[in-house]
Design a protein that fits this description.
single chain; 214 residues; alpha+beta; Glutathione S-transferase Yfyf (Class Pi), Chain A, domain 2; 55% helix; globular; binds glutathione
Amino acid sequence: MAATYTLYGAGGSGAAIVEAAFALLGVAFRGVDAASWEPGPGRDELARANPLTQIPTLVLPDGSVLTESAAILVHLGLAHPDSGLLPADPARRAQVLRGLVYVAANCYAAIGVIDYPERWCRDADAATCARIREGTKTRLHHLWDVFADTFPAQPFLTGERPGALDLMAVVVSKWSGARAHLATSRPAFSAVLARIEADPRVAPVLARHWPPSS
Ligand SMILES: N[C@@H](CCC(=O)N[C@@H](CS)C(=O)NCC(=O)O)C(=O)O
């Protein structure tokens, strides 16, 4: 069998970003169920590939490991220049790269604090963890407001078609109450997220990760 991509991931995780990218590309991949919070052989394999044991982690057909959702999207976009994952126009592409790093460095990083406050504050008790979570959530919602004000949809965040920035934004905004916040604070941006979710290639991936009944 020809070498293929191997994607480590779990339901409701950032692996949905990369699965949706493969759906836009029409490229097959092998999925391995793995997450730091799920003990088992998948996690052991993931830890060998990515010392942070984080998902998404992608093993490329040449066997090299690619982590960091933004880097994975940029790599796939460059490897498939006609896919529309990244804009061809350099000025537009620059803004998409800016947006990808913005979401990874600001929003996704904040989720890591909300999920694991004890990693960021030595000897934090439950009350301290709750305060860290609460403050980070408020900051996260502000970060999304700024994102919405900074990256106009044309009509998608990547351009005329859904692409890398759309996938990053639609998945990372699923967490920590960002959607409920944006529905009131930035309704036009919420409508853009809904438009991305409705794409027939993206919708089944999101439905698998976030089943409608859940
Ligand atoms: N910087 C990474 C963050 C990835 C990340 O935090 N993934 C979460 C799941 S959505 C994870 O694996 N968390 C488990 C952990 O940190 O132990 C990226 O942009 O891909």
